[in-house]
TrEMBL record:
InterPro entries from the UniProt entry: LRR_dom_sf, LRR_R13L1-DRL21
Source species of the chain: Dendrobium nobile
Name used for this protein in its record: R13L1/DRL21-like LRR repeat region domain-containing protein
Domain R13L1/DRL21-like LRR repeat region: 80-207
Gene3D superfamilies: Ribonuclease Inhibitor
Length: 492
């Protein structure tokens, strides 16, 4: 509880009250002085949890610059009209917008008059997701137009079927750099975000009715879709079919010219990109319907550093070998839950002649047979190998055992998790001269270890067969001497 005398410090500009989470039981109406809104010069307040939302008539604090969570209530002193004269705000979060009764009340916030506002979050409550009053949400959002100076905008759990009127005109949102739209379950069409000249980060999540990423395209030869976008995250847009509305196509090389990071999760209907963006460094796809990846057809180097594919049952080929000469930057590769994958591409004659090979830091797989596909079969260097979540592998095929010799001078860490049926490990482990760290977790059928190399510094075994612990345990295990050279051993 803050002292009641605090309200007498009329020239106070900053209140910062740190509060340990273990003691975070403060309730705003008990924690704050009743007349804290007398501090008219207050610029910044940091309080535990949502205490700031318990300030009645917070609109009196006209000098406040940050109001990160204003929880609306249908009670006098806590309505959206409190924001009317708070024109010094640069960061504002408005929660429980379902408590705004109509568009006229929303207009009382006068967001467009806040010429310093840079960061805005507009949220409806989680319970509002079941609402069927779409028109009300649309009217409210129509009347919450922010100022043109806004840089970051987040909208959560908006249940309107259409975008706000001001969002469909590029001019009011011209300067946006970051946009997050999440849990807008009824939204059918996105605003023309592709035309925003300064947009760098776009996240779209849980909008099951949206079919196109960009529905408006001006057709100008100089037009580049998403000209400065660097990060694009799309999660759970189950109806998303294409990047542009039917009948519209981007110019070659004009779709995401600056994109660095692309994450696509749970968009099973989305078509494959015509080609990967020219500056893309990280691609992460999961639960997608794609069959392959399309690399751009020019001869420029591909800057891709990280490629992750999870649970993509339709993927047949990832043409890495075809482009091995241009994939020199690739260091992190994950392929898991892709049961129909039959190829990682085919080496061209020029690649074999010039001896191009992958050099990876991390390789994460669940099917060891992937190791026998080029370019992994002849990989030049690998530091960390992770093999996880496979209930079918009983032992490693002889070819895979021999594959480990390919990375014997580079492999330093090996992780094997959740291989429920695995009964034996490759005998070639003894030859892995750079191996320092081995982790074996949840391999319940494993009873015996192969000879391990003298380079090994740590062995971590958990939830394996009881016989393994008995044989290699420090309390008189019959095979303890076989691992005694390892400085750090943990068996649980």
């Amino acid at each position: 509880m803050l002292p009641r005398s605090l309200s007498n410090l009329y020239h106070l500009q900053y209140i910062i009250c740190e509060w340990p989470r273990s003691l975070d039981k403060a309730k705003g109406d008990d924690f704050l002085p009743n007349d804290i809104n007398n501090l008219l010069n207050l610029r910044y307040v940091k309080l535990p949890k949502n205490c700031i939302s318990w300030i009645c008539e917070i609109g009196k604090l006209k000098s406040l610059q940050e109001l990160y969570k204003f929880i609306l209530r249908d009670v006098s002193g806590y309505r959206i009209g409190e924001l009317k004269n708070m024109n010094d705000l640069y960061k504002l979060g408005i929660n429980c917008l379902e408590n705004v009764k109509d568009g006229e009340e929303a207009c009382n916030a006068q967001l467009c008059e806040k010429r310093r506002l840079k960061d805005l979050t507009l949220s409806w409550s989680r319970s509002h997701i079941d609402s069927t009053n779409n028109d009300l949400d649309e009217n409210v959002l129509d009347n919450l137009q922010p100022p043109k100076c806004l840089r970051n905008m987040s909208i959560k759990r908006y249940m309107g079927a259409r975008s706000a009127i001001w969002m469909n005109n590029v001019n009011p949102i011209f300067n946006l750099e970051i946009i997050l739209l999440t849990d807008c379950l009824e939204l059918e069409t996105l605003p023309p975000f592709g035309q925003l000249p300064f947009l760098k980060f776009l996240k779209l999540a849980s909008m099951p009715k949206v079919k196109w990423l960009e529905s408006k395209f001006n057709g100008n030869d100089k037009y580049h879709a998403f000209p400065l976008l660097e990060k694009l995250y799309i999660h759970r847009l189950e109806a998303l079919e294409d990047w542009f509305e039917a009948g519209v196509a981007a110019e070659d090389g004009c779709l995401f010219p600056c994109l660095i990071q692309l994450r696509l999760f749970n968009c099973p209907k989305l078509k494959e990109l015509p080609s990967l963006p020219p500056k893309l460094k990280g691609l992460n796809i999961a639960n997608m319907g794609w069959k392959t990846l399309n690399f751009c057809s020019n001869s420029n180097p591909i800057p891709l550093v990280s490629l992750e594919a999870y649970h993509c049952p339709n993927i047949i080929s990832l043409p890495l070998a075809d482009e091995i000469a241009r994939l020199a930057a690739l260091r992190y590769l994950t392929i898991k839950g892709c049961p129909n994958l039959i190829s990682l591409g085919i080496y061209r004659q020029v690649e074999t002649t010039n001896n191009f090979h992958l050099m990876l830091n991390d390789l994460d797989i669940n099917d060891p047979s992937v190791l026998l596909m080029e370019p992994l079969r002849s990989i030049a260097s690998l530091k960390n190998l992770i093999i996880t979540y496979n209930d079918e592998v009983v032992s490693f095929p002889n070819e895979v055992e021999q594959w480990f010799l390919t990375v014997r001078s580079s492999l330093s860490e090996l992780y094997i998790y959740n291989l429920k049926s695995l009964q034996s490990l490759p005998s070639t482990f003894e030859s892995l001269s750079s191996l320092q760290y081995v982790v074996l977790w949840d391999v319940p059928m494993l009873r015996e270890l192969p000879n391990l190399p003298p380079s090994l510094e740590r062995l971590d075994i958990r939830d394996c067969h009881p016989e393994l612990k008995e044989r290699y345990g420090e309390d008189g295990g019959s095979d303890r001497h076989k691992i005694a050279h390892i400085p750090d051993i943990f068996i649980l």
